[in-house]
């Protein structure tokens, strides 16, 4: 293993020793004494079996595993619309393996692409906790010996895992649906967005471009949070190998899902290959998730999600771990917004089997993790295919396109493109894998806002046509639920295109597709908790320095200490935001995962 990967892993193991031991004791206890079907009363079982007729006799006989399906299906979210027919097919495939399957419950699945820039986005991050709680409810009946988790997008996969890990004595497999086929290229879509921001095209042209990009069922084709989720499930060994980026509606997609159901039936506690979820998600798997994120230029949202998933399994990872890993892990993939290719081109060039082979070969991934597929992670360096109507896997070859995927020995960059910034403003994250090197350091006067829509209006009035650090505060988890500030991407990109030195500093989030503009995000402590970001005033010189890892207001120390933080705006209401007050008031800081649920559970 690379010595820095080993050192960070050891650091996480040592820091997590008490909490991980408590977690493993929990799942051991649950495996041995938790409510199980043979122990349920007859009336309880009758209720559980009443909704099924074809499988009732098999359930009564307790002849095989009963698989709980936890689904995030809805047909408003393109990535999840594909799940419509999955449960009925999975029931057939379960019978083939001597098992049964039932839909245990549904979880909400909101689309950040729909809510970006509008009030509903303030529910987005806490939908992750809601999904975790819904997953726990689905699995609380004690009638399942394993579970299939159907989810793909931004908060859904983290939420499913956070809830499912509290039932970590059960084997579980994540089942993706795949990306939509390529439509209008992402780079062309982004260009139309910037033209619209400048008033050069109208709403009709913009809408046509957006529909041309987002045109059918499946995951969006850029490498944002949803597709980063799928990458992570592969490097953690929680998918069937190679399942992440196979398009919906194909024979291969169907056979991979069928294989996942069959595999679940084999890895239960009654068999000889028991692989409970809580044992699969160990410290090494969490490090693999972070390494995969860095090597592929994935979404900044996972600096929130990985710590939260880890905590649910008794594991503690912090931003220093990410920072150290980033300096050791090379970037070997270029997928939009870090390049021009989309995930379909990435898959065609070798996809996740290539990435995993290269990273294992370079000693950057822990191969010795207990994957759901059996064996270790080396099986995931094989690509799936259908030959003579039979699913099989074969070793992946060389990169099919070295503008998209490169060997670990000849990477695009020697590091992973994530940095932690620290200074008198606080701690923040910055993703520089798509930022030109001459923009890693920005020093400019601040323009301070408390709403991203006010930034857009100031841009339209020409007030930002200058070197500027745009500061958007009171966007943290306790203030308003930490919405993504994706609406700022086009105007900030336009300002940069005009030749200005531009950066963003915020205690909120940026989109998983954030790209060419340097953005210091997740600033902690947040403004609502008297974080120093609340002391910044219009005109203060701000230095965002990804080279040295600093985030500074260039203000005298005495003056800075004497400043009174800006008053917090009144809590917003409408669009159900008032119902999430308990989540906001109890949320942890960003570095711990920004979760109210985990904090409330004492995790």
Automatic annotation (TrEMBL):
Q: What is this protein for, i.e. what is its function? A: Catalyzes the dehydration of 6-phospho-D-gluconate to 2-dehydro-3-deoxy-6-phospho-D-gluconate.
The molecular function terms in GO held by this entry are: 4 iron, 4 sulfur cluster binding; metal ion binding; phosphogluconate dehydratase activity
Species, as recorded: Sphingomonas ginsenosidivorax
Annotated Dihydroxy-acid/6-phosphogluconate dehydratase C-terminal domain residues: 404-594
> What does the entry's cofactor note say about binding and number?
Binds 1 [4Fe-4S] cluster.
Reaction it catalyzes: 6-phospho-D-gluconate = 2-dehydro-3-deoxy-6-phospho-D-gluconate + H2O
Q: Which cofactor does it need?
A: [4Fe-4S] cluster
Please give the HAMAP family that the UniProt record associates with this protein.
Edd (MF_02094)
- Its EC number is 4.2.1.12
The entry's cellular-component GO terms read: cytosol
* Residue ranges of every copy of the Dihydroxy-acid/6-phosphogluconate dehydratase N-terminal domain listed in the record: 66-377
Family recorded in the similarity comment: Belongs to the IlvD/Edd family.
UniProt name for this protein: Phosphogluconate dehydratase
Q: Please cite one Gene Ontology biological process associated with this protein.
A: Entner-Doudoroff pathway through 6-phosphogluconate
**Is Transmembrane given among the entry's keywords?**
no
The alphabetized UniProt keywords are:
4Fe-4S, Carbohydrate metabolism, Gluconate utilization, Iron, Iron-sulfur, Lyase, Metal-binding
Pathway connected to this protein: Carbohydrate metabolism; Entner-Doudoroff pathway
**Alphabetical list of NCBIfam families matching this protein:** edd (TIGR01196)
Top enzyme class of this protein?
lyase
The UniProt annotation places [4Fe-4S] cluster binding at 153, 220
């Amino acid at each position: 293993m690379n010595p820095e990967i080993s050192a960070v892993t050891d650091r996480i193991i040592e820091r997590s020793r008490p909490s991980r031991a408590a977690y493993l004791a929990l799942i051991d206890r649950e495996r041995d004494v938790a409510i199980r079907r043979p122990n349920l009363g007859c009336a309880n079982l009758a209720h559980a079996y009443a909704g099924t007729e074809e499988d009732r006799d098999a359930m009564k006989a307790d002849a095989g595993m009963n698989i709980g399906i936890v689904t995030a299906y809805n047909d408003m979210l393109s990535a999840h619309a594909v799940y419509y027919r999955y449960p009925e097919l999975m029931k057939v495939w379960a019978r083939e393996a001597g098992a049964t399957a039932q839909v245990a419950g549904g979880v909400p699945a909101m689309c950040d692409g729909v809510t970006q820039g509008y009030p509903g986005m303030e529910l987005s991050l806490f939908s992750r906790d809601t999904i975790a709680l819904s997953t726990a409810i689905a699995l609380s009946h004690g009638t399942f010996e394993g579970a299939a988790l159907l989810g793909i997008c931004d908060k859904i996969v983290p939420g499913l895992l956070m809830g499912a890990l509290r039932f970590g004595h059960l084997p579980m497999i994540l089942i993706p649906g795949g990306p939509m086929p390529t439509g209008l290229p992402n780079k062309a879509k982004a260009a139309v967005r910037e033209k619209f921001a400048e008033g050069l095209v109208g709403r009709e042209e913009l809408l046509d471009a957006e529909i041309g990009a987002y045109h059918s069922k499946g995951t969006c084709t850029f490498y944002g949070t949803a597709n980063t989720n799928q990458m992570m499930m592969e490097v953690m060994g929680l998918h069937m190998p190679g399942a992440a980026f196979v398009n919906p509606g194909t024979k291969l997609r169907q056979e991979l899902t069928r294989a996942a159901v069959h595999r679940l039936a084999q890895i239960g506690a009654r068999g000889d290959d028991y692989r409970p979820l809580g044992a699969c998600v160990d410290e090494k798997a969490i490090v693999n998730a972070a390494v995969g994120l860095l090597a592929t230029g994935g979404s900044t949202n996972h600096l929130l999600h990985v710590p939260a998933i880890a905590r649910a399994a008794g594991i503690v990872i912090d931003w220093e771990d990410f920072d150290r890993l980033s300096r050791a892990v090379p970037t070997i993939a270029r997928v939009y917004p870090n390049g021009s290719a989309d995930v379909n081109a990435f898959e065609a060039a070798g996809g996740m089997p290539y990435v995993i082979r290269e990273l294992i070969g370079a000693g950057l991934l822990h191969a010795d993790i207990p994957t759901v597929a059996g064996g270790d992670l080396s099986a995931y360096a094989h690509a799936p295919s259908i030959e003579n109507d039979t699913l099989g896997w074969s070793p992946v070859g060389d990169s099919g396109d070295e503008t998209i995927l490169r060997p670990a020995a000849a990477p695009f960059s020697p590091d992973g493109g994530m940095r932690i910034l620290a200074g008198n403003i606080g701690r923040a994250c910055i993703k520089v894998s798509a930022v030109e090197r001459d923009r890693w350091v920005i020093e400019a006067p601040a323009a301070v806002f408390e709403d991203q829509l006010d930034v857009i209006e100031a841009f339209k009035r020409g007030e930002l046509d200058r070197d500027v650090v745009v500061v958007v505060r009171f966007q943290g988890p306790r203030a308003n639920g930490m919405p993504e500030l994706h609406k700022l991407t086009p105007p900030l990109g336009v300002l940069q295109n005009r030749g200005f030195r531009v950066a963003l500093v915020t205690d909120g989030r940026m989109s998983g597709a954030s790209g060419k503009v340097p953005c210091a995000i997740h600033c902690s402590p947040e403004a609502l908790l008297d974080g120093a970001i609340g002391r910044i005033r219009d005109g203060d010189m701000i230095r965002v320095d990804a080279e040295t890892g600093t985030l500074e207001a260039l203000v005298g120390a005495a003056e800075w200490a004497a400043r009174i933080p800006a008053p917090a705006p009144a809590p917003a209401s409408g669009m159900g935001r008032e119902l999430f007050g308990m989540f906001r008031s109890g949320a942890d800081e960003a570095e711990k995962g920004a979760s109210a649920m985990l904090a409330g559970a004492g995790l």
